[in-house]
Structures are given as structure tokens and as C-alpha cells.
Amino acid sequence: MVIALLTDFGTRDYFVAAMKGVILSINPKAAVVDITHEIPPQDVWTGAFVLKSAYKWFPRGTIFLAVVDPGVGTERAPLIIKTRRYFFVGPDNGLLSLAAEEDGVEELYRITGSLPRASSTFHGRDVFAPAAAYLSLGVEPPMLGIPTSRWTKLTMPKPRLENGVLYVNVIYIDRFGNAYTSAGAEIYQIASVGDKLCVETPAGEVLATFVKSYGYAQPGEAVMLVNSEGYLELAISMGNAAAKYGLRQGQELKIRRCQQK
């Protein structure tokens, strides 16, 4: 059984290793896979978005163990979510919600067990890792927690089109500095591939070419394209758009087709 890990722990410290140690102590045959441990610290939204983008490529039955947990040790619930094809284990702070809702939530449980003498600051090791490991052995969720109907959900912002202007939000910035937006195919309502787009950013207006893929642009050229996940993104060919234009998650961008001369 595959257990896929996503955290904001990084790899410098012992945190991820401790979680894997707990899992393998309970189920030595578990296949433990890393999605990423480089989610920015305490950034629940980015963790949720990355989990949503990654989960669907895993085999049916995969257990996703996600820990970005600034509320660890408080009254926030530890959750197991059974969806149509998967299990999700982690804190009830919205981290699991984008992926779980997309796959289709069937059952929700509040985890009631933990390792003996569980800490109040490392539930990834003491609560979530044991739950995921027992799930991988075939233990049913009702043996690990109590049913619940209350949980925290994040909402993906929606683009809007007004008078030829597409209003979008930056929802994710990848390691290349490409800024994913909340729009996708909506861009085709105002532009076609090859058009010039005027993009209002915090650093001022950017002239970007609407292209099919990065290779159709010259190095240093600003572009917009619909990426592999179906999101419209602002990028710089061979450059870093987020750094150059001061882009951050949550910002609003305004996009229009530039007047052709």
C-alpha cells in the first residue's frame, strides 16, 4: 500500500524521518512516497493546492498523509477522510479539502488514537503517521476514529469577466517563478494564441504574449499560457515572473487583450 507524504517540514531536520520511522514500525511493507516537504512553513493554502495537483496521479487506494499544521495541539481536529478512490489523513484546517472534495468525500472521521505519550507539538509523528500506517494494513477508519460531519473547507477563487477584462487571482507560484491564476479556459473568451495581453500587476502593466508553450517565446519574454494543470499562468521564458513583477499568492491581476495597432 502506498502512503504519500506532504509536509512543510523540509529535509534539514529529523521530522520527516521520524514520521517514516513510525509508519515502517507499524507496517514494514508500506511504500512511502514523498510528494514534497518544501511547502512554505505554515502555508496551508499552498499545501492544499499542491496536494490537489498531485493526488490524482496516484494509484487507487493511496493514503495521503499531509501535515501543514500551524494549529497543532489546539482544538482543531485530526482527520481521516475516505473519498471515492483514496484516503486523506491530516489536520482539519482546509489542507485536505481541495483534493478530497474533488475526488468526492464519502466518510469523515476524527482520529481518536495516538502513540503512547503523544506530544502536543508533533502530531505528524504521534497521531497522523500511526493512523496512516494502520490504514495501510487494512484497518477500517471506524477503528481509528469517530464519524464526524464537521470539517474545514478552502474555496478556490473564481475568475470573472467584465467588459473585456478578465479578473483573476494568483493561486500558486512554482519554483520557476511561474504564477498560476484562478482562470483557465476563460482566457479564450477574450484572446487567441498569438495575441498580446495587457496584464495589470502590482509592478505595473506587463505586455505578455499568449502562447501555447514556453518554447514559443524568446528568452526574457513575458508570456501567458494554459499550463499542464489547466491554469492560466503568467511566466517569463527562461526567467522568473514572480520575482520580477512582485507576485504573491492571493493577488488580483487584470488581463485584457491589448489593442492591436
UniProtKB/TrEMBL annotation:
Task: Specify the S-adenosyl-l-methionine hydroxide adenosyltransferase C-terminal domain's residue ranges.
Answer: 169-253
Is the keyword Lipid metabolism assigned to this protein? no
Gene3D superfamilies on file? Bacterial fluorinating enzyme like, S-adenosyl-l-methionine hydroxide adenosyltransferase, N-terminal
Record keywords: tRNA-binding included?
no
Q: Which InterPro entries match?
A: SAM_HAT_C (IPR046470), SAM_HAT_N (IPR046469), SAM_OH_AdoTrfase (IPR002747), SAM_OH_AdoTrfase_C_sf (IPR023227), SAM_OH_AdoTrfase_N_sf (IPR023228)
Q: What residue stretches are annotated with the S-adenosyl-l-methionine hydroxide adenosyltransferase N-terminal domain?
A: 3-143
What keywords is this UniProt entry annotated with?
A: S-adenosyl-L-methionine
Q: Which family does the record assign?
A: Belongs to the SAM hydrolase / SAM-dependent halogenase family.
Q: What is this protein called?
A: S-adenosyl-l-methionine hydroxide adenosyltransferase
